[in-house]
Amino acid sequence: MEKIRESLERLYNSFDFGRALQNDPIKFPKKFSYPLDIEISAILSSSFAYGNINCFCNFLEKLFGIMGSNPSDFILEFKPKNLIKKLTIKYRFSSVYDIVAYMFILKMMIRNSPSNSLEYYFNIAKFNGQFNRKYPETVSKITNFINIALKVDLTPIYGRDIKTKGLLHFLPHPAKGSPCKRINLFLRWMVRNRDVDFGIWKTIKPSELIIPLDVHIWRVSKRWGFTDRNSQNLKAAIEITEYLRQIEPEDPLKYDFVLCHSDINYLI
């Protein structure tokens, strides 16, 4: 493990964060300074961060163009029917209606949050049963966020309260074994206060985070021996995180951004 630690540190210390930032979805929330604008733009940017990077960045450019200079004001005030007319572009598995439904869920959750923030829903986890005891507390917090999101009545969007496949793609459930890559990416941005991350949430510690398991982290993890699992699931994400926690107990996701972009750019 000491050789892995040394390799990680060399990679980290020589890494060009500024250059990589321009090819990462975090560049969108980096445009804002007001905490709720950062939070809203961050959860939307991370939620669409799948598939070809040029495709999802182009989509996000159009979406934030519609939302304007204050994403938090937009999300709290938009009317679903009006946005459905304005948003003429879908993204991969999700229709215009699905995208508006997801934004409506965020709107209602923020409006109902005592702290005017999504952070609230990651800190009222209920521990009820074996599933929660088997996994880190962060899994329970993600579960709680997803469960509450799925309770929002979507009749204003679909005409009846349904949860379509295109909508559920934004809300993967840990109980089904999902590694919840995009939610964990969002949490990394909100919690860590180093490198490219914002660190505006204080009720979750960096040591509690789970790695956002995408194809790049998966390839590196298999190559470097962080896991021997054969599926990109929640158990693998936790196992990789536990390996990295042995190297950086207080900040196991320290190398996430570096490893991901190094694999993208064939640096390792």
Summarize the structure.
The chain contains 15 helices and no strands. With 268 residues, the chain is mainly α.
What is the alpha-carbon Rg in Å? 18 Å
Helix coverage percent: 40-55%
Question: N-to-C SSE series?
Answer: HHHHHHHHHHHHHHH
Quote the average pLDDT: 93
Question: How many distinct beta strands?
Answer: 0
Counting copies of identical and different chains, the oligomeric state is: single chain
| Biggest sheet record | none
Shape, per Cα inertia axes: globular
| End-to-end C-alpha gap | 17 Å
Beta-strand content bin: under 5%
Low-confidence stretches: 127-131
The number of helical segments is 15
Helix/strand/pairing category: mainly alpha
Keywords:
globular; 268 residues; mainly alpha; 15 helices; single chain
Describe the protein.
The chain has 268 residues and is an all-alpha fold. Helices cover 55% and strands 0% of the residues. The chain is built from 15 helices and no strands. The chain has helices spanning 2-14, 17-21, 35-47, 53-67, 71-77, 80-86, 96-112, 130-134, 137-149, 155-158, 165-168, 181-191, 215-224, 234-247, 256-264. α13 packs across α15. The longest helix is centred in the middle third of the chain and has 17 residues, at 96-112. The two termini are 17 Å apart.
How would the blueprint of this fold be written?
Layout: H1 2-14, H2 17-21, H3 35-47, H4 53-67, H5 71-77, H6 80-86, H7 96-112, H8 130-134, H9 137-149, H10 155-158, H11 165-168, H12 181-191, H13 215-224, H14 234-247, H15 256-264
